[in-house]
Design brief:
alpha/beta; Rossmann fold; Alpha-Beta Plaits; 2 domains; 6-stranded mixed β-sheet; 4-stranded antiparallel β-sheet
Length: about 300
Protein backbone atom coordinates (compact mmCIF):
# COMPACT_ATOMS: atom_id res chain seq x y z
CA UNK A 1 0.00 0.00 0.00
CA UNK A 2 1.24 3.48 -0.92
CA UNK A 3 3.26 5.52 1.59
CA UNK A 4 1.52 8.78 0.67
CA UNK A 5 -1.88 7.38 1.67
CA UNK A 6 -3.34 8.09 5.09
CA UNK A 7 -6.26 5.71 4.55
CA UNK A 8 -6.33 2.80 2.13
CA UNK A 9 -8.74 -0.12 2.13
CA UNK A 10 -9.07 -3.09 -0.19
CA UNK A 11 -12.29 -5.10 -0.49
CA UNK A 12 -13.30 -3.90 2.97
CA UNK A 13 -16.49 -5.72 3.95
CA UNK A 14 -18.72 -5.74 7.02
CA UNK A 15 -21.77 -7.96 7.35
CA UNK A 16 -24.35 -8.16 10.11
CA UNK A 17 -25.93 -11.52 9.48
CA UNK A 18 -27.42 -11.38 5.99
CA UNK A 19 -27.08 -7.60 5.84
CA UNK A 20 -23.94 -6.46 4.02
CA UNK A 21 -23.41 -2.91 5.29
CA UNK A 22 -20.03 -2.35 3.62
CA UNK A 23 -19.36 -4.33 0.46
CA UNK A 24 -15.83 -4.67 -0.99
CA UNK A 25 -15.05 -1.01 -0.34
CA UNK A 26 -11.84 0.31 -1.90
CA UNK A 27 -10.99 3.66 -0.36
CA UNK A 28 -7.96 5.91 -0.77
CA UNK A 29 -7.27 9.13 1.14
CA UNK A 30 -3.98 10.94 0.63
CA UNK A 31 -2.03 12.39 3.54
CA UNK A 32 -2.62 16.11 4.08
CA UNK A 33 -5.91 16.35 2.20
CA UNK A 34 -9.52 16.88 3.21
CA UNK A 35 -11.62 14.01 1.89
CA UNK A 36 -15.41 14.02 1.77
CA UNK A 37 -17.46 10.87 2.33
CA UNK A 38 -21.00 11.12 0.97
CA UNK A 39 -23.97 8.84 0.49
CA UNK A 40 -27.68 8.42 1.19
CA UNK A 41 -29.00 7.13 4.50
CA UNK A 42 -28.23 3.45 4.88
CA UNK A 43 -25.37 3.56 2.37
CA UNK A 44 -22.78 2.27 4.86
CA UNK A 45 -21.16 5.54 5.92
CA UNK A 46 -21.48 5.08 9.69
CA UNK A 47 -20.33 1.46 9.51
CA UNK A 48 -17.28 2.53 7.49
CA UNK A 49 -16.38 5.16 10.07
CA UNK A 50 -16.66 2.58 12.86
CA UNK A 51 -14.35 0.27 10.92
CA UNK A 52 -11.79 3.03 10.44
CA UNK A 53 -11.71 4.05 14.10
CA UNK A 54 -11.57 0.42 15.26
CA UNK A 55 -14.96 0.33 16.98
CA UNK A 56 -15.87 -2.80 15.00
CA UNK A 57 -13.90 -5.38 13.01
CA UNK A 58 -14.33 -6.09 9.33
CA UNK A 59 -15.82 -9.34 8.07
CA UNK A 60 -13.46 -9.47 5.10
CA UNK A 61 -10.88 -7.36 3.29
CA UNK A 62 -8.20 -5.17 4.79
CA UNK A 63 -7.24 -1.59 5.46
CA UNK A 64 -4.47 0.60 6.79
CA UNK A 65 -4.45 4.00 8.47
CA UNK A 66 -1.15 5.82 8.63
CA UNK A 67 0.68 2.64 7.67
CA UNK A 68 -0.91 0.50 10.41
CA UNK A 69 -3.68 -2.12 10.16
CA UNK A 70 -7.24 -1.19 11.09
CA UNK A 71 -8.06 -1.71 14.76
CA UNK A 72 -4.45 -1.57 15.96
CA UNK A 73 -3.30 0.50 18.92
CA UNK A 74 -1.14 2.57 16.59
CA UNK A 75 -4.19 3.57 14.53
CA UNK A 76 -6.17 4.54 17.61
CA UNK A 77 -3.32 6.78 18.73
CA UNK A 78 -3.14 8.73 15.48
CA UNK A 79 -6.92 9.19 15.00
CA UNK A 80 -9.12 11.91 16.45
CA UNK A 81 -12.83 11.09 16.13
CA UNK A 82 -15.85 13.36 16.48
CA UNK A 83 -19.16 11.45 16.13
CA UNK A 84 -22.41 12.87 14.84
CA UNK A 85 -24.05 12.58 18.27
CA UNK A 86 -21.31 13.06 20.87
CA UNK A 87 -21.87 12.01 24.49
CA UNK A 88 -20.25 13.66 27.49
CA UNK A 89 -19.97 13.49 31.26
CA UNK A 90 -22.56 16.18 31.83
CA UNK A 91 -21.48 17.07 35.37
CA UNK A 92 -17.85 17.73 34.37
CA UNK A 93 -16.71 21.22 33.52
CA UNK A 94 -15.18 21.67 30.08
CA UNK A 95 -11.66 22.11 31.47
CA UNK A 96 -11.72 18.87 33.46
CA UNK A 97 -13.28 16.98 30.57
CA UNK A 98 -10.60 18.07 28.11
CA UNK A 99 -7.71 17.36 30.50
CA UNK A 100 -9.27 13.96 31.24
CA UNK A 101 -9.54 13.11 27.53
CA UNK A 102 -5.94 14.17 26.98
CA UNK A 103 -4.86 11.95 29.87
CA UNK A 104 -6.60 8.95 28.31
CA UNK A 105 -4.30 9.37 25.30
CA UNK A 106 -1.25 9.26 27.58
CA UNK A 107 -0.47 12.98 27.42
CA UNK A 108 1.36 14.39 30.49
CA UNK A 109 -0.77 16.70 32.66
CA UNK A 110 1.25 19.86 31.98
CA UNK A 111 1.03 19.32 28.23
CA UNK A 112 -2.68 18.47 28.53
CA UNK A 113 -3.40 21.77 30.28
CA UNK A 114 -1.54 23.76 27.63
CA UNK A 115 -3.39 21.98 24.80
CA UNK A 116 -6.75 22.44 26.54
CA UNK A 117 -6.28 26.20 26.73
CA UNK A 118 -5.11 26.32 23.12
CA UNK A 119 -7.91 24.25 21.58
CA UNK A 120 -10.80 25.70 23.60
CA UNK A 121 -9.62 29.17 22.64
CA UNK A 122 -9.27 28.12 18.97
CA UNK A 123 -12.85 26.83 18.98
CA UNK A 124 -14.14 29.90 20.82
CA UNK A 125 -15.02 27.98 23.99
CA UNK A 126 -12.50 29.59 26.34
CA UNK A 127 -15.25 31.59 28.10
CA UNK A 128 -16.87 28.31 29.12
CA UNK A 129 -13.87 26.51 30.66
CA UNK A 130 -15.57 26.36 34.08
CA UNK A 131 -19.05 25.56 32.75
CA UNK A 132 -20.55 22.11 33.19
CA UNK A 133 -20.78 20.35 29.84
CA UNK A 134 -24.35 19.30 30.57
CA UNK A 135 -25.35 22.95 30.30
CA UNK A 136 -23.80 23.43 26.87
CA UNK A 137 -26.00 24.12 23.86
CA UNK A 138 -26.09 21.56 21.04
CA UNK A 139 -23.73 23.71 18.96
CA UNK A 140 -21.26 24.11 21.85
CA UNK A 141 -21.27 20.34 22.39
CA UNK A 142 -20.48 19.87 18.72
CA UNK A 143 -17.45 22.14 19.03
CA UNK A 144 -16.36 20.46 22.26
CA UNK A 145 -16.53 17.11 20.47
CA UNK A 146 -14.12 18.44 17.86
CA UNK A 147 -11.91 19.80 20.66
CA UNK A 148 -11.60 16.37 22.31
CA UNK A 149 -10.84 14.81 18.92
CA UNK A 150 -7.91 17.19 18.53
CA UNK A 151 -6.55 17.27 22.09
CA UNK A 152 -3.92 14.55 21.55
CA UNK A 153 -2.61 16.13 18.31
CA UNK A 154 -3.81 13.42 15.90
CA UNK A 155 -2.55 12.92 12.37
CA UNK A 156 -6.04 12.07 11.12
CA UNK A 157 -9.38 13.63 12.04
CA UNK A 158 -12.49 11.58 11.30
CA UNK A 159 -15.54 13.82 11.53
CA UNK A 160 -19.19 12.77 11.26
CA UNK A 161 -21.47 15.72 10.42
CA UNK A 162 -19.23 18.24 12.25
CA UNK A 163 -21.41 21.29 11.52
CA UNK A 164 -24.63 19.71 12.77
CA UNK A 165 -26.43 21.91 15.34
CA UNK A 166 -24.32 24.97 14.51
CA UNK A 167 -25.91 28.26 13.49
CA UNK A 168 -24.85 29.86 10.17
CA UNK A 169 -22.13 31.95 11.79
CA UNK A 170 -20.79 28.93 13.65
CA UNK A 171 -20.81 26.83 10.47
CA UNK A 172 -18.82 29.42 8.51
CA UNK A 173 -16.32 29.85 11.33
CA UNK A 174 -15.77 26.11 11.76
CA UNK A 175 -15.40 25.48 8.03
CA UNK A 176 -12.70 28.16 7.83
CA UNK A 177 -10.84 26.56 10.73
CA UNK A 178 -11.05 23.06 9.28
CA UNK A 179 -9.87 24.24 5.87
CA UNK A 180 -6.64 25.55 7.39
CA UNK A 181 -5.80 22.47 9.49
CA UNK A 182 -3.94 20.47 6.80
CA UNK A 183 -1.67 23.46 6.14
CA UNK A 184 -1.24 24.67 9.72
CA UNK A 185 -0.96 21.34 11.55
CA UNK A 186 -0.36 18.72 8.81
CA UNK A 187 -3.63 16.97 9.67
CA UNK A 188 -5.58 14.79 7.24
CA UNK A 189 -9.36 15.12 7.52
CA UNK A 190 -11.94 12.49 6.57
CA UNK A 191 -15.38 14.06 6.81
CA UNK A 192 -18.83 12.56 6.38
CA UNK A 193 -21.56 15.10 5.69
CA UNK A 194 -24.91 15.49 3.94
CA UNK A 195 -24.31 19.19 3.27
CA UNK A 196 -22.78 19.12 -0.20
CA UNK A 197 -22.38 22.89 -0.48
CA UNK A 198 -20.13 22.85 2.59
CA UNK A 199 -18.13 19.90 1.33
CA UNK A 200 -17.63 21.56 -2.03
CA UNK A 201 -16.00 24.52 -0.28
CA UNK A 202 -13.96 22.34 2.06
CA UNK A 203 -12.75 19.12 0.48
CA UNK A 204 -9.98 18.28 -1.97
CA UNK A 205 -11.40 14.90 -2.96
CA UNK A 206 -14.55 12.89 -2.36
CA UNK A 207 -15.96 9.38 -2.29
CA UNK A 208 -19.62 8.71 -3.01
CA UNK A 209 -20.89 5.50 -1.43
CA UNK A 210 -24.14 3.67 -2.10
CA UNK A 211 -25.29 0.25 -0.88
CA UNK A 212 -21.95 -0.27 0.82
CA UNK A 213 -19.88 0.28 -2.31
CA UNK A 214 -17.83 3.19 -3.64
CA UNK A 215 -19.67 4.63 -6.63
CA UNK A 216 -17.10 7.24 -7.52
CA UNK A 217 -13.85 8.56 -6.01
CA UNK A 218 -11.64 11.37 -7.30
CA UNK A 219 -10.60 14.95 -6.73
CA UNK A 220 -13.46 17.44 -6.84
CA UNK A 221 -11.67 19.34 -9.60
CA UNK A 222 -11.38 16.24 -11.80
CA UNK A 223 -14.97 15.19 -11.22
CA UNK A 224 -16.21 18.64 -12.22
CA UNK A 225 -14.00 18.65 -15.29
CA UNK A 226 -15.22 15.21 -16.38
CA UNK A 227 -18.89 16.03 -15.90
CA UNK A 228 -18.72 19.44 -17.60
CA UNK A 229 -16.94 18.05 -20.69
CA UNK A 230 -19.00 18.86 -23.81
CA UNK A 231 -21.88 20.12 -21.65
CA UNK A 232 -23.28 23.60 -22.30
CA UNK A 233 -25.98 25.90 -20.94
CA UNK A 234 -28.14 28.13 -23.13
CA UNK A 235 -30.59 30.79 -22.03
CA UNK A 236 -32.44 33.00 -24.52
CA UNK A 237 -35.48 35.25 -24.61
CA UNK A 238 -37.43 32.44 -26.33
CA UNK A 239 -36.17 29.16 -24.84
CA UNK A 240 -39.27 27.16 -25.76
CA UNK A 241 -38.81 27.83 -29.48
CA UNK A 242 -35.05 27.32 -29.43
CA UNK A 243 -35.39 24.08 -27.48
CA UNK A 244 -37.84 22.58 -29.98
CA UNK A 245 -35.75 23.67 -32.99
CA UNK A 246 -32.49 22.25 -31.61
CA UNK A 247 -33.97 18.81 -30.94
CA UNK A 248 -32.73 16.31 -33.52
CA UNK A 249 -29.86 18.48 -34.80
CA UNK A 250 -26.72 16.47 -35.69
CA UNK A 251 -24.53 18.64 -33.47
CA UNK A 252 -26.75 18.08 -30.42
CA UNK A 253 -26.34 14.67 -28.77
CA UNK A 254 -28.58 15.50 -25.80
CA UNK A 255 -30.84 18.41 -24.94
CA UNK A 256 -32.96 19.03 -21.84
CA UNK A 257 -34.99 21.84 -20.35
CA UNK A 258 -34.64 22.21 -16.58
CA UNK A 259 -37.27 23.33 -14.09
CA UNK A 260 -36.28 26.96 -14.59
CA UNK A 261 -36.71 26.70 -18.36
CA UNK A 262 -32.95 26.78 -19.05
CA UNK A 263 -31.61 24.68 -21.94
CA UNK A 264 -28.84 22.15 -21.28
CA UNK A 265 -26.92 20.70 -24.22
CA UNK A 266 -24.43 17.92 -24.90
CA UNK A 267 -22.30 18.37 -28.01
CA UNK A 268 -18.89 17.06 -29.08
CA UNK A 269 -18.36 19.91 -31.58
CA UNK A 270 -18.64 23.34 -30.01
CA UNK A 271 -17.91 25.27 -33.20
CA UNK A 272 -20.75 23.60 -35.11
CA UNK A 273 -23.04 23.93 -32.09
CA UNK A 274 -22.37 27.68 -31.90
CA UNK A 275 -23.35 28.15 -35.53
CA UNK A 276 -26.54 26.11 -35.12
CA UNK A 277 -27.52 27.97 -31.96
CA UNK A 278 -26.94 31.38 -33.52
CA UNK A 279 -28.97 30.47 -36.64
CA UNK A 280 -31.81 29.14 -34.47
CA UNK A 281 -31.86 32.15 -32.16
CA UNK A 282 -31.95 34.59 -35.11
CA UNK A 283 -34.70 32.62 -36.81
CA UNK A 284 -36.76 32.72 -33.64
CA UNK A 285 -36.19 36.47 -33.30
CA UNK A 286 -34.71 35.83 -29.87
CA UNK A 287 -31.66 37.13 -28.01
CA UNK A 288 -29.02 35.14 -26.14
CA UNK A 289 -28.86 35.86 -22.40
CA UNK A 290 -26.16 33.28 -21.71
CA UNK A 291 -24.38 30.56 -23.68
CA UNK A 292 -21.38 28.75 -22.23
CA UNK A 293 -19.96 25.66 -20.54
CA UNK A 294 -21.96 23.97 -17.81
CA UNK A 295 -20.82 25.03 -14.33
CA UNK A 296 -20.98 21.79 -12.38
CA UNK A 297 -21.49 21.64 -8.62
CA UNK A 298 -20.81 18.74 -6.28
CA UNK A 299 -24.57 18.37 -5.87
CA UNK A 300 -24.92 17.85 -9.65
CA UNK A 301 -22.29 15.11 -9.59
CA UNK A 302 -24.04 13.42 -6.66
CA UNK A 303 -27.42 13.48 -8.40
CA UNK A 304 -25.95 11.95 -11.56
CA UNK A 305 -24.00 9.19 -9.79
CA UNK A 306 -25.96 8.35 -6.64
CA UNK A 307 -29.09 10.48 -6.43
CA UNK A 308 -32.36 10.82 -8.27
CA UNK A 309 -30.86 11.49 -11.73
CA UNK A 310 -28.52 8.48 -11.92
CA UNK A 311 -30.84 6.56 -14.20
Amino acid sequence: MSENMMIETKRLTKSFGKLVAVNNLDLKVKKGEIHGFVGPNGAGKSTTLKLLVGAIKCTDGEGIVGGYPLGSKEVRRLIGYSPERPAFYGDMIAWDYMVHMAGLSGMPIDRAEIKTHEILDWLELSDFIDTQVGGFSAGMKQRLSLAQAMIHEPELLILDEPTANLDPTGRISLLEKLKQLPHERSITIFISSHILSELEYLVDSVTFIDKGQAVIEDTVQQLKQDMSLNHYVLNTTNNEFVFKELQGKDSVQEITLDNDGIIHLLSDDMSVLQAVVMETVIRGEAMIKYFGKEQVKLEDIYRKTVGQDKN
